[in-house]
Amino acid sequence: MAGRLISLVWNFAMRSAVRNTCFAILSSIETDLRETIGDLALAANSVDMLPPDVRKNATERFELDDKHTPGVPPENDIDLIDYTDFADLGKMVRIRSEEITSLCGRDAALLANQLESMTRARNRVCHSRPLESDDLSRFIELANSLLRDYPQLLWKELQGVRLKIEQDPTFVLRLEIPAFWTAAADVTPHNLPMVDFDETGFVGRTTETRDLIKYISGPHPLVTIVGEGGVGKSALALHCLYEILDVKDARFDAIVWISLKTRILTTAGVREIHEAVTSTLGIVQASTDQLGSHVAGGDLEAPVRELKGYMSYSRILLVIDNLETLTLDEVRPLLESIPTGSKVLLTSRIGLGELGLRYKLDPLDRKQSILLARRHAKSLNLQLLAECTEDHLGKYCQALFFNPLLIKWFVSSVSNGADPERLLSKGNQSFATALQLCFENLYNRLGGSEKQILHVLFAARRQLSQTELFFLLQEVTQLSQLELEMALNVLHGSSMLKRAFRDRRKADSGTQYALTDVSSEYLARFAPPNAKTLERVQAALKKLRSMAEHAQLQEEAYPYDIFAVRSLTTDERICAVYLNNALKKARAGLTTEARVLVEHAKNLLPNFSETYRISAIVEGKANDLFKADEEIRTAIDLKPESSLTRYQYALFLLKEMEDFNSALLQIDAALQNDSN
Length: 676
Fold this sequence. Notes:
Helix content: 55-70%
Shape: elongated
Radius of gyration: 34 Å
Strand order of the largest sheet: 2-5-6-1-7
Largest sheet: 5 strands, parallel
Distance between the termini: 86 Å
């Protein structure tokens, strides 16, 4: 208990130190600039120095400052200049650009640009917004730049602060950001929690932030951030929501944050969160409490109706974090028919199917992961990892699957004395516990079909096309194609599966499926397939290889045998199995069974021309000449350069239709493709 308390106090102190160091630098810059601008205004006998919009903003902050007697207005702009910020000072520098340029011998517009470029970073510090990863370094660089490029402005306060930081860095912990800055900022009522990434800043996710803000502000009533446990869904949501708070023309009248998180990961293991929200009724009750009302327990229908009433009258953004702790059926009444103008943002480890827009969040890339690990190590004064080489730290991050939660857990554990190599070893129980937290809840909620797919992919040990996957599942589990497609959608939404394209320049291209690295590790440790499944998958893969060899021998024996199925890729060879069986059924007079097998092949590869060529033979055996003609025409449309298909069509026109001229046209086309 004592160790955890020390860790909490240290982390809080580090977050305060980063923010307060930024504040010490920026406030000293503002103080020096206010003094310079005030002196210039007094020298010009211009007491009313503030532009109207700056005066308005400064007056509002003046009135919020409890140092002044309520109702007593400022005497003039001299009283208000202390309530100007970077953006205001930038405007004032531009107004007095001639005087400042003359004083410094350097274009004052450049100074104004520097101040205005730091306005958002300044607001993050003073308005209790989450910090970006480079905010502190940018303020340090700004201070260095001002001292170097504008020495004539003296910068007494800035120089004093720099000296204090060098002599006693902890002095910033005694600073307090004036309350009127935060009070002036929060236009939209909200209950957003403080973030846990202030000590590192928000690392990366520039594109994701832009996209998610666009989706939240767009027409979609329901947006779900989907990703594996610990990938940073909650952090990204909070980062975007705090950005939205600073939009002057607020999109929402209120933002309500509800967390369904029941467990958190610490260096000591997984800790349960007491009194966590664990039901849809709990979500509704917590939401209405935030909106100034209260609904009693019992029936869900009336409370949901009351919450949606709020959302109809006002533009409410309801945010539900960690939704995967509930099932879709449990939350469907709340998420259907969201009132126009209001929105729901969810974070979940598994998608909601047809409900809303799904935004998939992937792990950090290697560069961002290393940056996060290094920054977190520095925040804990852990030199072992803070000064680690890029290559070494990159290997640690890769072993942690570039997962932000696992990276921070790893760094914190090493800071508490754990050996980094031993911590990541296969048998380490602490790492197993951390991994289990990220995936156990998700895996346990998957259905039998989804788990079967995961086990087949795990047993195959390589990427599989959907056709290969369907074939293996048919061999191992008898899963239908519809069940397969539905299960694949669920798995894709759960982030346990990754998709990629093979090289388009190769014949054997298309979408490939594989387990993500972290889900593969989870299965290996906690939910491996049984020996029988492993044996069946390997037998099915051997069968695939045998089919490939048979297809090649068939084609080499006689290239114009119309009963030999031509296949180039693995997917086509799988279809060839069904087509060869269809030909056998058709020869035996079992045309209904043959047609079923042809349809299987069509479902697997809708654009495989051989399927339609063989279908034409089956339909000819069934005496449906119109259908046979239609099928072989489709085969030619899909692959007009196939001399075999042209040859088969010529035979059909000659023997079945007695259309000699059309048959000659097909032979001519075949000769153009193959003159020999």
